[in-house]
Amino acid sequence: MAETILVIAEQREGKLNRVSLETIVGAQALAKQTGWTVEAALVSGGNPPVDELKAAKLARLYSVEGPELAQYTPDGFVGALKALIEVKKPKLVLLPHTYQVRDFAPKLAANFGAVLVSDATGAKFEGGKVLFTRQMFQGKFTADVALAGDGPWFVSFQSGAYRADQLEAGVADVEIIAAGAATIRTRPEAPFQEAKQAVDLSQAEIIVSVGRGIKEQKNIAMAQALADALGGEIAASRPICDAGWLPMERQVGSSGQTVSPKLYLALGISGAIQHIVGMKGSKTIIAVNKDAEAPIFEVADVAVVGNLFDIVPALTEEIKKAKA
């Protein structure tokens, strides 16, 4: 009998987190190598957003529902998921590496006497073992990690590790499971925000990102105008945020946010590995840099060698004209 991979999908206020779809793509890719089956579970207080998941190639979709799950609490989620895992006995439990998962997943794994391999960037099957790739020393090195024991194994995938648009389609059967009563020891409050104007770049479909080539803080307005014209978000490499030109929540890279938008425009970014690991999962990458040998061009789908101060304003005006 084939082993099972169980993906714990995440939703908030009835909206599915896109990283959940990326995690299912990772599970599907691993299943092709191992011959295992892929299932998914969605935890909610009721009326979960199952439509997107029902359209995925899954052996089964579990909708774990209960009034105590209407608002997120680690006690409620761990209690509901522990009961599901004990009954279904998956070999591997995969989760999207989100703030919520970071909160409850270590406790969930500990309930099974297991560890959590967090923030993995990929998985492969070699020599009869499943190996999970993790970055080390701020992305300077990677290591392959193998898990011992009979399972269940617990692993979270980094945002951008896989592409949501590569999701294999299918028709998943939905099984509704009533969550058992759990002792909730905390009272939920408003969802966490890092700052008043905080933004979750991992959910952005278009990102305009600036690097040292922008030269001065006042020039960021030029990139912001392009982002506004495209309906996207502004972001930056680490030096820009370290200088205080943009808030730290806008940083993309190994020490910032990991993103996987449909379109990523890199303006004046050289392409240090610490930045590359944070945006290489983007569907389309357009890079503008006057240095023809800039490392960013190695991952770019479109490479524009030129002065961004000439290119960006002209591009912004053309986009505005096209929208008029």
Spell out the blueprint of helices and strands.
Layout: E1 4-9, E2 11-12, E3 15-16, H1 18-34, E4 37-44, H2 51-54, E5 60-65, H3 74-88, E6 92-96, H4 99-110, E7 116-126, E8 129-136, E9 141-146, E10 153-157, E11 174-178, E12 206-210, H5 220-230, E13 233-236, H6 238-242, E14 263-267, H7 273-279, E15 284-289, E16 302-305, H8 308-323
Q: Report the radius of gyration as a whole number of Å.
A: 21 Å
Number of domains: 2
Quote the distance from N terminus to C terminus: 59 Å
Please count the helical segments: 8
Would you identify the regions where 5 or more consecutive residues have pLDDT less than 50? none
Quickly list its features.
324 residues; alpha/beta; Rossmann fold; 2 domains; 9-stranded mixed beta sheet; 5-stranded parallel beta sheet
What would your notes on this structure say?
This protein has 324 residues and is an alpha/beta fold. The termini are far apart. It has a nine-stranded mixed sheet with strand order 9-8-7-10-6-1-4-5-11. The protein has a five-stranded parallel sheet with strand order 13-12-14-15-16. It is built from eight helices and 16 strands. It has two domains: 4-178, Rossmann fold (3-Layer(aba) Sandwich), CATH 3.40.50; 201-323, TPP-binding domain (Rossmann fold), CATH 3.40.50.1220. The protein has helices at 18-34, 51-54, 74-88, 99-110, 220-230, 238-242, 273-279, 308-323, and strands at 4-9, 11-12, 15-16, 37-44, 60-65, 92-96, 116-126, 129-136, 141-146, 153-157, 174-178, 206-210, 233-236, 263-267, 284-289, 302-305. Helices cover 27% and strands 27% of the residues.
